[in-house]
Amino acid sequence: MARPMPERRLDRQFERRLAGLVNAREPGVLSGGLKGVEREALRVTPAGRISQAPHPPALGSALTHPHITTDYSEALLELVTPPFAETWELTQYLCDIHQFVYRHLGDELLWVTSMPCVLGGDGEIPLARYGSSNIGRMKHVYRIGLGLRYGRMMQAISGVHFNYSFPEKFWPVFQAVAGSRQGGQPMLDDAYFALLRNYRRFGWLILYLFGISPAVCRSFFAGRDIPAGLEPLGKGTLIAPFATSLRMSDLGYRNKSQAGVHVSVNSLPEYVRDLSRLITTPHPEYQVHGVEVDGEWRQLNANLLQIENEYYSFIRPKRVAHSGERPTKALLRAGVQYVEMRSLDVGAYDPVGVNRNKLCFLEAFAALCLLRGSDPLSAAQSAAYEENHVQVASRGREPGLVLWNEPEPLPLAHWAAQLLDEMQGICELLDAADAAKPYTTALALQRAKLDDPARLPSSRLLAELERERDSFFGLALAMSRMHRDYFRDLYPPNEARLAEFATEAVDSIEKQREVEAADTLPFGAFVARYFDEATV
Asked: With contact defined as beta carbons under 8 Å apart, do 344 and 162 qualify?
């Protein structure tokens, strides 16, 4: 006999807030929030091996270019958009910047999946270099430290980050419907941290709906034991049969060194306190490596974290920092400016790594997380909710999967349907003045995935691997070539925007020279001052 579905528990606070927004008679109260994307992609050779070539000079300086830089590896491009109020403008910018990049890659390709190409071990992954300036050296040494601590293979994984801030006109209405006695930045900080807590509770939904890394090239484990849960598919591919996002599982970014680390998102002061503690607490295992040994820097320090960004989380509160300012100090100085959602895999079927439907859904999901009730989380609750993310990443399509929740566990399918139902009114608000109804359309596409899990991107990729009898590597390489051809053949190109990118590249090289010429401190003194001045 089938187990009856649990009764839906209504969130009265959410219902009141949503009704308040609907009745506020403020046209487009949720429309116009600022949206940005950071897309990572490995540069690979025509044969699908990670590029050993330096960052292409025509793309400018990876240190100072505002939109084209590198992440961990010299071969790992990171394309960063400005914030846009309209999703179509954001996707158009992404398209233009990809076309510009491809004009200057020669015969190289951008790898289209989060899990990397064929790798010959850590030694084949070149660390990013940023020139001779102190800040450039600091970024490079930080990457040396990451390699020592976690290995370079994990750092070759790529993803898509979605940056979002609510529109200014939303906040006075929200203050009224939430009955908040405080306004201004303190209210925004509290609201954004409520969003962060609910993302810990519900963010597994993003992995389920959009995860597309259920397979990996066997070379990813070169010289290492194959972890339990992975099965061979053909000669060179390993799969987790029910996985959605190996990138976000214990095999990827969620490295075991940070699995027990807790950073509170109950308030801005607690968040900064916990991160600061991690950056100042020595770690015996990292102390073994040393920091500066015989004049050679191996890491920035031997503490649990070298800097804040080493702590990997599914979502971060952000504030644009001043030059040389640590992220936590920027948050204390002026509060939360936006959130960075970090759970998206690179969309292998999307030429720019993401698409409009995903972006619309993420914007509506951010509103759900902010409007819903969001009590403080204990360390144990946080750990249990974060474990839901890991379970969904590694076996989210397993029939009957049940996730931890209070006061009782919930079947994933039931919980997901409840969340999507609650997003209906939010999507209607976001669609207020748009006859095309992009948000409602995006929501309907996700509901279809719940009705038929074969529509999930992770299911689609595995089905294609089995149908084509191809390896993960072979399929990803073929798709990378298709995306290259798409951008090379795209017509008409946006020549004005491409010229703008070319000017930015030239200007960034000159700016790097200026940064290098302005240095006066020895590197060791620069690092010491950075941590001293940034202490919070």
From this structure: yes
